[in-house]
Design a protein that fits this description.
The chain folds into three domains: 2-138, D-tyrosyl-trna(Tyr) Deacylase, Chain: A (3-Layer(bba) Sandwich); 158-259 and 309-489, Bira Bifunctional Protein, Domain 2 (BirA Bifunctional Protein, domain 2); 507-620, Anticodon-binding domain (Rossmann fold). 33% of the residues lie in helices and 27% in strands. It has 16 helices and 28 strands. The protein has a ten-stranded mixed sheet. Strands 1, 2, 3, 4, 5 and 6 form a six-stranded mixed sheet that branches. A five-stranded mixed sheet has the order 25-24-26-27-28, sandwiched between helices. Its main location: cytoplasm.
C-alpha cells in the first residue's frame, strides 16, 4: 500500500462518473463530501497487499495514527487514489481494505470520512504547508513474495527508520524543524517539506524537460527501458565537458583514476551483504545459470581493488576515483523525471581510505569544500542549493563543533536528519540538494564516512607497528550524477527565465559560444574568415548561412542562448572589425576580433574545451526533433 498524507484546512470531493464497471454502491448524499481541519490520507491498495490484507490494514492504521498525533489532527479523510501505484490490487480486495481502515480509525476515536471507491471524482484541498503537512508512507505485508534478488533490506529499513528533523544555524543553534522561522529561507522550507514527506513522485513535467528538448540536448529513448536517455550532439558535448571537468578536479585533488566492471556476481559474499546495506534497487542480468546485478555505484569495483592492494599508513589518505558511465538503479517508474531521476546515470565516484576518524573528518571537510568549488564552476552557488547533514545522536553529542563548522562554511542554515541509532553503513553524510521549479529536491554533491565496508570487504592497511588494521572509507561524489548537474543548470535557467532574466549556459559549457551572421552573400568570405580565426583560438563558432532575414537570424541565436553574436557586413569587412552582441548584458559593440578572443578566453580559462559538436554552417545541420 502507498499513502500520501496531507494535513489540510479542508478536503472536499464530488463524484463525476464511474471509473469501474461495478463501483461501490453509494447514495445521493455520498456523491459529495467535505471535512475541515483534517488529515487527508490518499491511498492505493497494491497487488502485494492481497497476500495479507489484515496486516496491511493494521500497519496502515498505526502509520495514520502516528502522523495524526504529530500534526494533532482528530479528523481523517480516507481517499482512494489509484495514481500512487501502477501495481493495483483487485477492486474487491481494495474496497474491503479501505472499509476496514475506515472502521479501525473510528474505533480509535477519530472522526472519519471515506470518499467512495470506483469513481472519477473532482476534489479540492487546502494544504497547511508546514514541514509535516505532506508525508508519504509505504506499507509492505510480511507475506509478500519477493525474490532474493529483488528484496533489499536497506530499502525496507529506510521505510521504517525514525528520523528527527532539525535546522542548524551557522551560529550553532539546533532548532526543531517545526519551530524554525523559515522567513528569508523559503528554499530551505521547500527542501525540508520534500525530505520529510518522502514523496518523490513528480505530478507534472519539470521545466528542464522542455528546455532539454527545445535545445536538442537530450531526449527519451522509446527503444530502451524508462530512465535511459539518448543524447544529441549538443547534449553530448555538455555532458562530456562536465565529465571532463569533474574528473580533472578530482585528479587535481589527489585521486588515482581506475576503471571497474559494471556487472557483479550476486553470490559474492561481501557484495551480497553490501547490497542489503545500500538503499537502491538493482537491475538483474542472467548469464548462463548465474545471476549478476548491474552496479549502482563504483563502490564494488573500487572496494575489491583496495582489498587486493598492499596499503601502508604512509599511503593514507588514499583516494581512488572512477567516472561510472553508467551506474544503474531500478527506480520506480513514477519517480522518473527527465534528467532529475534516471535508471542509468553517470556518477563521478571517489573513495578515500582514512586511517582513523580524525583523518576521515579532516578529509570530509576538505571534500565538502571541494564540492562547493565544483558546483561553483558549473554556475551553482550556495544560494542555488540546500544542505542536508545526517548522523546519529551520539555523533552529534561527540562532534557538535565539527558539524556546526560545516554550517558556518556554507554560511546559512542547514537541514539536519538525526537518528537514535545507526542503521546505514555511514556515521556522517552531507548532500547539497537542488530544489527545482516543482519544489522537488535532488541530491548533487555528497560525502559519507563509512565505518563498515572495510571490514566487510577485507580492506586493511599496515599501521606504524606493521600490524594490519581496518580503515574508514569516505564515499564522495563532488558533483553528484552528471545528468543531475545538467538538470540543475536547466532548472536554474528556467527560474531565471520566469523572472524575466535571459537564460544562458555557463560560457565554457555553451555548445556554440559565438555565432557569425553575414548580412549578405557578398560578405560570406569574411564571415568564414572570422569563424576560422575563432576556431583556431579554440572557441566554438558557427555561421548562419541560411536565407533567413537578419532579424530572424538574430532571434534564432537568442532562442538558442548563443552568448556572442557577430554581425558582419561591408563596413566590418572593409575595416577588419566585428560588431558583437553580448547576450549577458544585451550590449552591441564594434571591436577588434583579437579583443573578442581575449575576452572569451579570459572567461573560459581553467575549464576544459571540446570542439564544436555540429557542422560549421547551419544549412548543413540535420534537425533531430520535429
Amino acid at each position: 500500500m502507498r499513502m500520501l498524507l496531507i494535513h489540510s484546512d479542508y478536503l472536499e470531493y464530488e463524484v463525476k462518473d464511474k471509473a469501474l464497471k461495478n463501483p461501490e454502491p453509494i447514495s445521493e448524499e455520498q456523491k459529495k463530501g467535505r471535512l475541515e481541519e483534517v488529515l487527508a490520507v490518499f491511498m492505493s491498495v497494491e497487488k502485494a497487499d492481497e497476500t495479507n490484507p489484515d496486516e496491511v490494514v493494521e500497519k496502515a492504521v498505526v502509520e495514520i495514527k502516528d502522523v495524526a498525533s504529530q500534526v494533532k489532527a482528530g479528523r481523517i479523510f480516507v481517499y482512494p487514489f489509484a495514481h500512487l501505484s501502477s501495481e493495483l490490487a483487485k477492486p474487491d480486495v481494495a474496497l474491503k481494505v479501505l472499509q476496514r481502515i475506515e472502521e479501525r480509525l473510528m474505533e480509535e476515536g477519530f472522526e472519519v470520512k471515506r470518499a467512495p471507491f470506483g469513481y472519477y471524482k473532482a476534489f479540492r484541498l487546502s494544504c497547511k504547508g508546514h514541514p509535516l503537512a505532506e508525508l508519504s508512507r509505504t506499507i509492505v505485508p510480511s507475506g509478500e513474495a519477493v525474490s532474493k534478488e529483488e528484496r533489499n533490506i536497506a530499502l525496507e529499513k529506510e521505510e521504517e527508520l525514525k528520523s528527527y528533523w532539525y535546522v542548524l544555524t551557522p551560529e550553532g543553534e539546533l532548532i526543531e524543524v517545526e519551530k524554525f522561522d523559515f522567513t528569508g529561507h523559503e528554499n530551505l522550507r521547500k527542501f525540508a517539506n520534500y525530505e520529510i514527506s518522502k514523496n518523490r513522485i513528480a505530478d507534472r513535467e519539470p521545466p528542464h524537460v522542455r528546455l532539454m528538448l527545445e535545445h536538442e540536448l537530450v531526449d527519451y529513448e522509446p527503444g530502451s527501458d524508462g530512465g535511459n536517455l539518448r543524447y544529441y550532439p549538443k547534449g553530448r558535448l555538455i555532458k562530456g565537458l562536465l565529465e571532463q571537468y569533474v574528473t580533472e578536479k578530482v585528479i587535481e585533488y589527489g585521486a588515482m583514476e581506475v576503471e571497474t566492471p559494471i556487472m557483479y556476481d550476486f553470490e559474492h559474499p561481501a557484495l551480497e551483504k553490501y547490497l542489503n546495506r545500500f538503499p537502491a534497487r538493482q537491475y538483474v542480468v542472467k548469464s548462463g545459470d548465474k545471476k549478476f546485478f548491474l552496479r549502482f555505484a563504483a563502490c564494488f569495483g573500487q572496494f575489491l581493488i583496495k582489498k587486493d592492494a598492499t596499503i601502508s599508513y604512509r599511503n593514507l589518505p588514499l583516494r581512488m576515483y572512477e567516472l561510472t558511465r553508467y551506474s544503474f538503479r531500478r527506480e520506480k517508474s513514477g519517480e522518473l523525471s527527465g534528467l532529475r531521476r534516471l535508471r542509468a546515470f553517470t556518477m563521478p565516484d571517489m573513495h578515500t581510505v582514512a586511517k582513523d576518524l580524525k583523518q576521515a573528518m579532516d578529509e570530509f571537510k576538505k571534500q565538502y569544500k571541494l564540492s562547493m568549488e565544483v558546483l561553483r564552476g558549473v554556475g551553482l552557488t550556495p544560494d542555488d542549493y540546500e544542505v542536508a547533514i545526517r548522523f546519529t545522536e551520539d555523533f552529534w553529542k561527540e562532534n557538535r563543533d565539527f558539524v556546526v563548522e560545516l554550517a558556518r562554511i556554507i554560511g546559512k542554515p542547514v537541514l539536519i536528519e538525526m537518528w537514535k541509532q545507526r542503521f546505514f553503513y555511514f556515521i556522517l553524510k552531507f548532500e547539497f540538494n537542488f530544489v527545482d521549479n516543482l519544489d522537488k529536491a535532488a541530491a548533487l554533491s555528497t560525502v559519507q564516512i563509512d565505518v563498515e565496508n572495510a571490514e566487510r570487504f577485507g580492506i586493511t592497511y599496515y599501521n606504524e607497528e606493521g600490524k594490519e588494521e581496518h580503515p574508514l572509507i569516505l564515499h564522495c561524489s563532488p558533483s553528484g550524477a552528471i545528468e543531475r548537474v545538467m538538470y540543475a543548470i536547466l532548472e536554474k535557467q528556467a527560474k531565471l527565465q520566469a523572472r524575466g532574466t535571459k537564460p544562458a549556459f555557463p560560457l565554457w559549457l555553451s555548445p556554440i559560444q559565438v555565432r557569425v551572421i553575414p548580412v549578405s552573400e557578398e560578405v560570406m568570405d569574411y564571415a568564414l574568415y572570422v569563424a576560422g580565426k575563432l576556431e583556431g583560438a579554440k572557441i566554438r563558432v558557427d555561421v548562419d548561412d541560411t536565407g533567413d532575414r537578419l532579424n530572424k537570424k538574430i532571434r534564432k541565436a537568442e532562442k538558442e542562448w548563443i552568448p556572442y553574436v557577430i554581425v558582419v557586413g561591408r563596413n566590418e569587412k572593409e575595416q577588419g572589425t566585428v560588431t558583437v552582441r553580448r547576450r549577458s548584458d544585451g550590449r552591441q559593440v564594434e571591436m577588434q576580433l583579437e579583443d573578442l578572443i581575449k575576452e572569451i578566453k579570459g572567461q573560459v580559462e581553467g575549464f576544459p574545451y571540446r570542439p564544436r559538436p555540429l557542422p560549421l554552417l547551419l544549412s548543413r545541420r540535420p534537425k533531430f526533433r520535429g
